[in-house]
Specification:
The complex is a heterodimer. Chain A is an all-alpha fold. Helices cover about 70% and strands about 0% of the residues of chain A. In chain A, helix 1 runs antiparallel to helix 2. Chain A starts with 6 loop residues before the first helix and ends with a helix. Chain B has 14 helices and no strands. Chain B is about 75% helix and about 0% strand. The chains are: A mainly alpha, B mainly alpha.
Chain lengths: ~80, ~400
C-alpha cells in the first residue's frame, strides 16, 4: 500500500492543512468575536480602541496570508 | 523550421484543447464561487465575473508549462496527435455530461481518463502505467475529499464555537469579506493550475506537428487563448454544478462558506507544494461537506454526496470509453479526415447535451432556489395517502392551472 500512497506528503498536507486551513478561519472568527462579540461595544455603541487593534491584528494576519498565497502562486511554487 | 506535418489535424487538436479549456472553466466555477453565491455574499453574476477575472489573471501569473499530458500515467511514446484528440474528446464529453447531471467532477481526471482510453485503443494495455494511474489518479480521488472534510469540519467547528454568541447580522457582514477573499484565492489557483494544463497540451501538439522547435517556450497566442477560453467558460458559469455545490449538499451560511473556501485554498496549495496533486473539485466538494459536518444542527445530504463520489469513481473508465471510441472512429476513417469526423462527432454530441440541458435550465436567476428532490407521481400519491390530504396530489397540476388562467 505504501507504494501507492505518498504518506509523507499526505501527512504534511493534513498537518499544515489543519494549521492554515482550519486555524486561519478560527483566527478570523476570533477577530469577529473581539470586534462584535458580547460586551464588545460600550454604552454608546462604540468599540473600544483596544478591541479594534486586537481584531485588526486577527484580520490583518488573515489578509497577509491571502497575499502571501498570491505571491506563492505567482512565484510558480505551484 | 521543418514543414508542419498534418496542419489540419493540428488545427483541430488546438481547437479541441481550447474547447476542453472552456469546459474546464465552465465546470469548475462552482468550486470557488458556489458557497459565495449560496450565502449571497456575492450576487451570482458578480461572483462569476470575479472568478472569471481571477482565472484570467491566474493564467498569466505563473508560467511553468510542461509539454506533457497524463505524465507518469501513460507511456509518453504512444501519445500521438490522434491520441490527444481522442483524449480531449473523452474529457469534454464527460465534463458536459456531468454538468448536465449537475455533478461536480474533476476536469483533469476526465482528461486523463480520455487519454488512457485512447492509449488503450492505440497501443493496448502496455501503453498505460497502471501503478501511476492508481497512485496518481484513483486513490487521490478517494483521499482528497476525506482530507478536505476533516480540515473544513475542524475549521467550521472552531469558527462557530467562537462566534455563536455574535449577532447573525454581524457575522454575515464580516465573514462575507473572509469568504470573498478565500474564494478569490481558489479561483486564482485554479486559473494558474488548470490553464497551464491546456497550454501544455497545445504546446505538445505544436511540437509533435513540428510547428515549433522541441525546446520552445509557450507562444504568447497560446497563453492568451487558453486564458480567455477558461475565463469565458468560468464567466458563463456551470450553474447546474454551482447549484448542486451551493444548495444541494449543505444549507450554507457565511461562516461555513468562509471556513470551506479557506480549507479548499489551503489544501489545494499545500497539495501542489508537497507534490501530491489533489483535484480542486474533490477538495472543494469535500470542504463544503466538511462545513456541514462541523456545523452543529446542520444536515448534510449524503445521498447527493454519494452520487458525486460514484461519479468520481467512474470518471476515468467513462471518459476512457469515450476516448477509446473516439480514437477508434478516427483510426477507422483515417488521416486528417478521421480527425475531422471525430471533431464533428464531438460537436454533435456536445450540441445534443446542450439541448437536453434546456429542458430544465439552471441559470443565475434560479441558482439559489430551494433544493427539493424531484417528486415522482408515486411518492406524491403515497404522501397524500399517508397524510390523508388529497390536495397534495394537485401539486403536479400547477403548470396546467397556470395555462388555463392565461387563456382567460
Amino acid at each position: 500500500m505504501s507504494t501507492y500512497v505518498e504518506w509523507d506528503a499526505l501527512g504534511n498536507i493534513l498537518l499544515w492543512g489543519l494549521i492554515v486551513g482550519a486555524g486561519l478561519p478560527a483566527l478570523f472568527a476570533l477577530g469577529v468575536r473581539i470586534a462584535e462579540g458580547p460586551g464588545a461595544r460600550d454604552a454608546d455603541g462604540h468599540i473600544p480602541t483596544g478591541r479594534k487593534i486586537l481584531s485588526g491584528i486577527c484580520f490583518g494576519i488573515a489578509a497577509l496570508t491571502v497575499l502571501g498565497a498570491v505571491a506563492y502562486i505567482a512565484a510558480g511554487g505551484h | 523550421m521543418d514543414a508542419v506535418t498534418e496542419p489540419l489535424l493540428l488545427a483541430v487538436v488546438v481547437a479541441t484543447a481550447l474547447a476542453f479549456d472552456f469546459t474546464n472553466g465552465f465546470h469548475d466555477t462552482g468550486n470557488a464561487m458556489a458557497t459565495s453565491i449560496a450565502t449571497r455574499a456575492l450576487k451570482p453574476k458578480q461572483a462569476v465575473l470575479l472568478s472569471a477575472l481571477l482565472n484570467l489573471v491566474g493564467a498569466f501569473l505563473s508560467l511553468t508549462v510542461a509539454a506533457t499530458i497524463a505524465k507518469g500515467i501513460v507511456d509518453s511514446n504512444v501519445v500521438t496527435l490522434g491520441v490527444v484528440l481522442a483524449g480531449l474528446t473523452g474529457g469534454i464529453l464527460w465534463n458536459l455530461l456531468t454538468w448536465l447531471l449537475g455533478l461536480p467532477s474533476s476536469s483533469s481526471h476526465a482528461l486523463i481518463g480520455g487519454v488512457v482510453g485512447a492509449v488503450l485503443a492505440a497501443a493496448g494495455t502496455q501503453g498505460v502505467l497502471w501503478d501511476g494511474l492508481i497512485s496518481k489518479v484513483l486513490l487521490p480521488a478517494l483521499i482528497a475529499p476525506v482530507v478536505a472534510i476533516l480540515v473544513a469540519s475542524v475549521g467550521t467547528r472552531l469558527v462557530t464555537r467562537f462566534t455563536n454568541d455574535v449577532k447573525q447580522e454581524d457575522n454575515d457582514r464580516l465573514f462575507r469579506w473572509g469568504q470573498i477573499g478565500s474564494a478569490s484565492l481558489v479561483s486564482l489557483a485554479h486559473g494558474t493550475n488548470d490553464a497551464q494544463k491546456s497550454m501544455g497540451i497545445i504546446l505538445l501538439a505544436l511540437i509533435a506537428a513540428g510547428a515549433v522547435p522541441e525546446d520552445s517556450g509557450v507562444p504568447f497566442w497560446v497563453i492568451l487563448s487558453c486564458a480567455l477560453a477558461m475565463a469565458l467558460g468560468t464567466y458563463l458559469g456551470g450553474w447546474r454544478v454551482i447549484r448542486t455545490l451551493g444548495k444541494g449538499l449543505v444549507e450554507l451560511e457565511s461562516r461555513q462558506g468562509m471556513a470551506a473556501e479557506t480549507s479548499s485554498a489551503a489544501v489545494i496549495l499545500l497539495s501542489s507544494h508537497f507534490g501530491y496533486s489533489l483535484s480542486t473539485t474533490h477538495v472543494a466538494t469535500g470542504s463544503i461537506l466538511g462545513s456541514g459536518v462541523g456545523m452543529k444542527g446542520a444536515s448534510v445530504r449524503w445521498s447527493v454526496a454519494g452520487r458525486m463520489f460514484l461519479a468520481w469513481l467512474i470518471t476515468v473508465p467513462a471518459a476512457g470509453t469515450v476516448g477509446a471510441l473516439a480514437y477508434g472512429l478516427g483510426a477507422l476513417v483515417g488521416g486528417g479526415a478521421g480527425s475531422f469526423v471525430v471533431f464533428a462527432a464531438l460537436i454533435i454530441a456536445s450540441a445534443a447535451i446542450w439541448f437536453a440541458s434546456r429542458k430544465d435550465a439552471v441559470g443565475h436567476h434560479n441558482v439559489n432556489e430551494d433544493w427539493k428532490p424531484k417528486q415522482d407521481n408515486e411518492s406524491i400519491l403515497a404522501e397524500s395517502v399517508v397524510d390523508h390530504d388529497m390536495k397534495l396530489m394537485r401539486v403536479s397540476k400547477k403548470g396546467k392551472r397556470r395555462k388555463l388562467g392565461g387563456k382567460r
